[in-house]
Amino acid sequence: MPLPDRLAHNDDVVLAYEVARRAGDFLAARPDVLHTETKTSDVDVVTHMDKASEAQIVQALRLARPHDGVLGEEGAAQPSESGRTWIIDPIDGTTNYLYDEPFWCVSVAVVDVAGPMVGVVDAPALASTYVAARGAGAWRIDLDGHHQRLAVSTMDSLERALVGTGFGYSSQRRAAQARVLTELLPVVRDIRRLGSCALDLCFVAEGKLDAYYERGVHVWDHAAGALVAREAGAEVTGLHGQPVSEEMCVAGGLVVHRLLRDILESAGADRD
Ligand code: IPD
Ligand code: CA
Questions:
Q1: DSSP secondary-structure letter at 240?
Q2: What is the largest CA-CA distance in the chain?
Q3: Is residue 257 helix, strand or coil?
Q4: Residues framing ligand 1 (Cβ under 6 A)
Q5: pTM of the prediction?
Q6: Low-confidence winner among 36-45, 56-65, 166-175, 208-217 (lowest mean pLDDT)
Q7: How many angstroms does the Cα of residue 2 sit away from the middle of ligand 2?
Q8: Which of 168, 164, 61 is CA-nearest to residue 108?
Q9: How far apart are CA 149 and CA 162, in angstroms?
């Protein structure tokens, strides 16, 4: 297994890596026809592949870790008897998957009372798997099994920062997010909207984005990516001294995180 030495002896990392990679390989063999249903709005879709991916991951985890909890975006909800819970997004970036754009991934995290302990984000169309364990660092592993330790960018100016963001699925939320953008866009290098919160956070970890923020992301979107980003040196928080939550997720190196957080607070970015 191509895990770096510092992670290879962590059984949770090994299992998270195995289930995420297996689901990623399954999804990468994209069927010609995707059956879709809508969820919270007409533009919030789920495909039969999201559901099949989650079912496959949950089945493997129930066998390997019968006492751990499981929470998945597509409905898995097994209470924890061990104090540890596996948080799964079977496809983060479903709209990209639907349109055969490359920015989609499988996100698997293990969390305990102190937050994420392990995070794996597998992005087959980018030939990349991001892996982190709390206190042990974050890595990107490529298809050949080469791994590279991740470190956030050292950018210290918001004006030169490339900032990722994303938009929710309701018109009201999007109108509020557009108002925040009118304040932010004139004062940053540029904005990117990849379409996957987990990959946005991994891109911050890798220095491919200087920062990222989004209102409305769920724990399955950010749990694994936030650990990857933190272990690469990023701050990942909410606004007004709050931890990351559905209200707001802001990530970046120390200085850019502070500058971005300040402007988001003054723009009221955690309100609709
Ligand atoms: C979505 C993606 C997207 C973000 C949305 C999320 P999904 O997750 O992470 O980038 O903007 O807020 O809901 O629906 O593809 O799992
Ligand atoms: Ca999803």
A1: T
A2: 51
A3: helix
A4: 73, 89, 92-94, 166-168, 195-197, 214, 216-217, 221
A5: 0.98
A6: 36-45
A7: 26
A8: 61
A9: 21
Q: Over 90: is that where the pLDDT of 1 sits?
A: no
Q: How far is the CA of 93 from the centre of ligand 2 (A)?
A: 6
H/E element, 118? strand 115-123
- pLDDT tens digits, 102-151: 999 999 999 999 999 999 999 999 999 999 999 999 999 999 999 999 99
Closest CA to 43 of 186, 195, 183, 164: 195
Give the sheet arrangement for strand 190-192, strand by strand.
190-192, 162-165, 211-214, 249-252, 235-237
For the CA of 98, the nearest ligand: 1
Element (H, E) at 27: helix 11-28
Residues in the chain: 272
Over the stretch 241-253, which tens digit does the pLDDT of each residue have?
A: 999 999 999 999 9
- The sign one gets for the Cα dihedral 193, 198, 199, 203 is positive
Contacts of 63 (CB under 8 A, 6+ apart): none
What is the Rg, in whole angstroms, of the alpha carbon atoms belonging to the chain?
A: 18
131 and 120 Cβ atoms separated by less than 8 Å: yes
Give the tokens for residue 151.
Answer: 């470190």
